[in-house]
Each structure stands twice: as structure tokens, then as C-alpha cells.
Amino acid sequence: MRSLDTLFTPRSVAILGASNDETKYGNWISVQALRMRDRRPVYLVNRRGEPVLGQPTYRSMADIQQPVDLVVITVPAAGFEAAVDDSLAAGATAIVGITSGFAELGDEGRAAQIAVARKIRAAGAVLLGPNCLGVLDTTSDLFLVSNPLPCGPVGLVSQSGNMALELSRFLADRGLGFSRFASLGNQADLCAADLIRAYAEHPGTEVIAAYCEDFQDGRAFVAAAGEAVAAGKPVVLLTVGSSTAANRAARSHTGALTSDSAVIDAACRAAGVDRVRSPREMADLVAALHRHGSKPARRVAVIADGGGHASTASDIADANGLAVEEFRPSLVAALKADLPPSAGVANPVDLAGAGEQDIASFARTIDRVLSDSDIDSVLVTGYFGGYGEYGPELAAREIATATVIAEHVHRHGKPLALHTMCSDSAAADELRRHGIGVFRVVDDAARTLGMLADHADRHPSVPQLPEAADPVRHSDYWHARELLKAGGLAFPEARLATDVVAAAEEIGYPVVLKAMGLLHKSDAGGVAIGLSDADSLSAAHEDMVARLAVSEYCVEAMADTAGGVELIVGVRRDLRFGPVLMVGLGGVFTEILKDVTFALAPVTPAEAETMLRTLKAAPLLHGARGRHPVDLTATARAVATISRIGAAHPEIAELEVNPLLATPSGCLGLDARIVLVGR
User: Which CATH number does the domain housing residue 214 bear?
Assistant: First the structure.
């Protein structure tokens, strides 16, 4: 891990390409940089030597004649490498490349970018960018971005400048801002993992937000994010996750079923990262995590001042994974004694007009439900915040009630999300001032509590890749099954033979005949099952020889599939995240039902069992409709074995067992395939 101290806390800064032209980054960055002159020297470098923003400039870095820690380069691409040389000669150990025109333009630009990044790295310096928006550290008064950004506890890593600007507005609306911001740009040198590690060690950063389009080394990202989460700093990720499966030549079920989004979700689960879908959703969750941390939120009390809002909010809460369970009798009795006879008190709570008569009933009700050990969180919905429109006296009482509500929430330490149709009111502002989450839309309030609940329920575990095993040279079924068998996965007894009848007589009938050298044997008609005697076996063999021109065959004992459940287990090597495990319902319906789940490989048997239990088909494993339950321990152990073997062979692009037969007495591989990298 390289030190990023001079990137965030430099002793001196130079803007190379400072300009008076208000349409250029050299101007925008200079304007912000001059805000920190009381903290550190700021040198403006302009090749013409003309004053910029009323300040004297230097024609070159050499003219400064003082050490410079950090240089921001805004010159055109043609002059970028020369600017880097000048910066390194001046002693810079951190360079921020605002300049665009590199890898984003194609191979020639990429080659130039790689060359200059190598030069910077060889000099012992670091490069942020190029093609980035800049860097910010409000705890060290470092302002080197094009726009002023709000201060706060959030560390942001973003590959998009516009996303950062939009998120800054959402955070400011929630009373938050940035401790640090680094614009990744093209990630020629520093990548998201480097920045996240630096943020995890930064005392001023409490929550980390990241927008990434390309993770570079995905395993490094997962490791860094996992370290941050373990250090008590949640990581919230917004990324592009549309599937590219349609553009990939999928040569196995595993490849066809695995999308970029599924891989990213698996990576997030491993690291304990919270994934969101929009900048607004990111701001909501970041604010909630800052307020509540990892507090439980699953069991929610819904409080409304109207039946329609109560019912609608309950449905929306349920859709977001929250449990709106009936209150215990003692709580029902306490609420009933305090509220009007027409009030609903079982969960959801409908105050039924109590707000107009006694606005403080909101605070008392919230206090009571928060006091109950069966309640993790509260969702308030409706008109609170609007009662002040009925007159100044009620307005004053409503603001006072908002203060009391905030006191109850902070005292109990449980999450509360308040939706109000009057979100611009004085009472709503009072709640925000005290750190309460106020939402204009009930969907956002419920979704945020649901995300908090998911966050608290996570048990992250970042897998370590095993040492690479001796490489596999062949990809046919026989070599696949022998590789897996050597690793501990059971298969039916089999022979690789040219004399198939002799092999069958050694094994015993019935048998399965499989033609070797075919990736999709069944599709090509290269598998014959239930062959009960020499005649049927010979006939099947002769037919395959005539149609397929295959000389080598596997004769395998026919497994008894009665009472078993067919699963698919595959490992695919992702370009960014390495080996990814897929587990799902197997057999002929695999790609139709798509009942699958994913994890970064390898997994432990315990993690494999958790994956199996999350399948929609899990009741089949547990013994649905009178069936005997399968040996789940043996099945999980088999899944973990496949994941370990796939992870230990970087030359294998895809490894798949389909079906893996789970039975009450154990687990058996019935077919397997390998796709080698580049094949």
C-alpha cells in the first residue's frame, strides 16, 4: 500500500495550466485552490507568465525554485507528459491529471496513458486520473476540484465528475458533505481500492461512498472495502451493472446465467458493501448509516395519521423486506389507553385524528413503540409537518413535538424514518436539524429502512484465493471428472474405453455412454442413458460413431436419481473479480427457471450451505411433499470443493458440474465440463 499523504495533505500545491479563461479547468481549479492559501503555498503556473485571477504566476515548474508536493495538471493532452516530467523534476510525489484525451479515445491514447503512469510510478509518485475532476480533503483544507463542495463525514470515490456533483447536492440537503473526494478518471495508476484504503484510515471519514464503472482489480476492491467495513466504516456502492451476457459467447450454462450485475452483487456480499441504484438512494442510505450505523431495522412499527397512509406504508414496508408484525398485547393496551377509540393500535398505528386534537400524541406514540424490545425501527407517514398550517398556536406545538420526537429517537437509539407530504415545513426542518431522516416520498423512507435492515443482517467474508494448482491441459469430460474426483467430489464408477462392452461388464449394468471431446454432449446426441445390456450399449455406441466420428467413450455406472435433487454448480472466471461460484437448480430446466445464486469463490461449506438455503428450490432439499431431505452437509461440502478447485486453476475459464445429484445419502457428480481460457 503506497502512501497517499501528499495527495490529501500536501505541504504545497501547484496548478500547471492556470488560466483566466472561465471556460477552462485551469481557471476553475485555480479559483478553488486560492481558497487554501492560508494553509499552504499555492503556485499558479502559466506558460505566458501572465497574472491569473490577479495573482502572479510562474512560466514553468522550474521557476518556482521551491519543493512542490502536489501538482494539478490541466494542460492539453499533447503537453501532458512534458508537464509530468517538469512536475517530477520539481519534487512532486502526487500528480492529479485533469487532462483528458487518453484511454477514453482508444488504443493510442491508452498506450500514452500507460507509459506516463509507469514513469510516475517509477519515480515513487502517485497519479490520480487522468481525465478526472480533481481531489478534495476538507479536513486539511485541500480544495482542488472544479466546484465548491460541502464539508462533512463522507469520503467519496467517483469515476464520474457529474455523479459527484449530483451526490453533493443530495448530501447537502441532508446536512452532510464530504471529508474527502477523489475523482478516479481513467485510473491509470490509483484505483478505487487505493482510495478506499486511504479513507478507511482517515479519522475524518465515517462513511465511504463509491461510484465505479470499472473496478480494475475487482478482488483488490473487495479486499479494501472489506477492510473498511471491518473498521466500522460502511461502504456504499453505485455502479453500472447491466448484463453483458448477450455479447459474450457463452459456452456453458454458467456463462449464460452469470451477468456483470450478479458478479458485482456477489462481490458486495463478500465485502459487506451496500449497493444502491441511484445518487438519491445513495444519499439516503449514507445519511441513515451515518445516523444509525449497523442498528437492526427489520421489525418496523408503522405510524400514520390516516388509514390510507397506514395501509399503503405497510404494503411498501413489506415490499422492502421489513416485517410489520402485530404488537404484543401490552403495547396494544398502552396505545389504546392514550389514543382515540377509533385509532388503530395493532401495527400499523392509525392515530385517527389525534394529531389535530393533541399533536403531542405523535411523540408519545413514537416513544412507546421505540420502547418495545420487539420493535427495531419506526416508519412515520402522513401529514405531520402540515398541522402548523392551521394556525400559529398549533404550529408552535408541532415544532415543539418535533423536538421531543428527536429526543426520543436519540434516547432509544433506534432508526426512525419520517415521511411527510409537507416536507418543506418548519416542523420537518426541526426534525432534520436534529438529525432525523425526513422524506418527501414514503417509498424512499421504507426503502432506506429496508437497506438499513439488510446492512445490519450482513455477515461479510472476503475469500482468499488459493495457490494456483498444476494447470489442466485437457477439457473433455473424463479429465473434468478426474480433476474433480481427485479434489474430493464423488462420481459414479466409470471407465475411459474404446471397447465399451468390456468396460460395462467390469462396472455392471445399467450404464451411461458418453462421447468424449464434445463440450455439449447432450445437445450433440453424445449421451445415452439407461443402457441395460450389451446389445443396447453396442447399438448406442455404433450410432454415435457413425454420427459423431468420436473414437473415445466414457462408460459410467447409471446413478439412481430417485429421491434426489439435481443441482448445477459452476465456477466462471470473471475478468475483474476472478473466480465466481454459481449454485442453482440443475438439470434440463436450469436456463429456463434460472433459480441461481452467486458468490466469489472459493466458499466454505458453511457459506455453500447458506447459498443452497437461499434458492427458491430449497424446500426440495429439505424434503418437500413427503420427500426425504437430502444430505445438506454433504451437498454443501461438494459445492465448496467445486469452488475451491475452480479458484485454484486460473487457466480454467469455466468449470461446471451439471447435474450435481443431492440425495439423502450423499452427493454425486453426474456430468462435468471445463472451458479453458482462450478456447
Answer: 3.40.50.720
- In a shared domain, residues 374 and 399: yes
- Neighbouring residues of 516: CB distance < 8 A, sequence distance ≥ 6: 476, 477, 478, 496, 550, 552, 553, 554
The CATH number given to whatever domain includes residue 586 is 3.30.470.20
**Residue range 2-16: average pLDDT?**
97
Total domains present in the chain: 4
- Contact (CB, 8 A) for 475 and 483: no
If one compares 214 and 192, the residue with the highest pLDDT of the two is 192
Nearest Cα to Cα of residue 655 among 587, 572, 578, 596:
572
Q: Are residues 647 and 629 in the same domain?
A: yes
Q: How many residues does the chain have?
A: 679
Q: What percent of the chain has pLDDT over 90?
A: 88
Residue 281, domain member (yes or no): no
Q: Order of strands, edge to edge, in the sheet holding 94-97?
A: 42-45, 13-16, 70-73, 94-97, 126-128
> Within a domain: residue 255?
no
Q: How far is CA 465 from CA 11, 602, 646, 647, in A?
A: 40, 7, 10, 6
Instruction: Tell me the backbone φ, ψ of residue 313, rounded to 5 degrees.
Output: -65, -35
318: cell is 413489506
C-alpha cell at 101: 484525451
In angstroms, rounded to a whole number, what is the distance separating the alpha carbons of residues 585 and 221? 30
What's the pLDDT at 258?
46
**pLDDT recorded at residue 520:** 75
Please tell me whether residues 498 and 591 are part of one structural domain: no
Verify that 550 and 570 share a domain, yes or no. Answer: no
pLDDT above 80 (res 245): no
**Residue whose C-alpha cell is 496513458:** 113
Which of 609, 670, 679, 619 minimizes the C-alpha distance to 643?
A: 609
Dihedral pair phi/psi, residue 490, rounded to 5°: -80, 140
Are 351 and 406 within one domain?
yes
Residue at a domain's end among 507, 525, 557: 557
What range defines the domain where residue 198 resides?
A: 5-240
Contact call for residues 39 and 11 (beta carbons, < 8 A): no
Q: Which cell numbers in the block locate residue 335? A: 396505545
In the 8-state DSSP scheme, what is residue 58?
Answer: B
E runs forming strands in 243-343: 274-276, 300-304
Percentage of the chain beyond pLDDT 70 is 97
Nearest to 12 by CA among 199, 140, 146: 140
Last residue of a domain, one of 178, 211, 240: 240
Quick check: is 264 in a domain? no
Residues 570, 536: one domain? no
SS3 582: strand
Beta carbons within 8 Å of 196's beta carbon, 6+ residues apart: 157, 208, 210, 221, 224, 225, 228, 235
CA–CA dist 176, 212 (Å, integer): 21
The full DSSP string for 139-206 is TTTEEEESS---EEEEEEEES-HHHHHHHHHHHHHTT--EEEEEE-TT-SS--HHHHHHHHHT-TT--
Q: What's the rounded Cα separation, in Å, for the pair 301 and 679?
A: 56
Angle, CA of 117, 118 and 121, to the nearest 5°: 85
pLDDT band at 248 (very low <50, low <70, confident <90, very high): very low
